[in-house]
UniProtKB/TrEMBL annotation:
UniProt protein name: 50S ribosomal protein L9
Extent of Acidic residues compositional bias: 86-116
Taxonomic lineage of the native organism: Eukaryota, Metazoa, Porifera, Demospongiae, Heteroscleromorpha
Keywords, comma-separated and alphabetical: Ribonucleoprotein, Ribosomal protein
Membrane-spanning parts: none
Organism: Geodia barretti
One GO location term (cellular component): ribosome
Domain Large ribosomal subunit protein bL9 C-terminal residue range list: 8-67
Domain of life: Eukaryota
Region: Disordered, residue numbers: 82-116
Entry-linked SUPFAM superfamilies: Ribosomal protein L9 C-domain
Length: 116
């Protein structure tokens, strides 16, 4: 999700469970209740954050929320972070280019398919 930032990755305001629920609703074409989004503490900086989502009383999932600056795309921002982490070419170290999946597997108390 895109957010305006101040200096050093700090945000104007914070990313709330309501904002995350709205974005998930758009992405899934289903209504996601903000009360089902569990944000441990307000997200006030750029980066990647794990958030618990209760889709049903017996179905929970953990997702990764990526907060990136307004005026760029999530892919472009991730690429710029990877380029910053690459070793200098003259050091002779191998380059790594790995991006973790945005969604992690859902956990449920029962091993039943997701009916949410």
């Amino acid at each position: 999700m895109s957010k305006c930032e101040r200096a050093r990755g700090q945000l104007y305001g914070s990313v709330t469970n309501a904002i995350i629920a709205d974005k998930l609703s758009v992405m899934s074409d289903r209504e996601i209740d903000r009360r089902g989004i569990e944000v441990e503490e307000p997200i006030r900086q750029l980066g990647s954050f794990n958030v618990n989502v209760r889709l049903h009383p017996e179905v929970q999932a953990q997702i990764e929320v990526l907060v990136y600056p307004t005026g760029t795309t999530a892919d472009a921002w991730l690429q710029s972070l990877q380029e910053d982490d690459k070793p200098a070419e003259d050091e002779g170290e191998p380059e790594e280019a790995a991006v973790e999946a945005a969604d992690e597997s859902g956990d449920s108390e029962e091993d039943s398919p997701n009916d949410a």
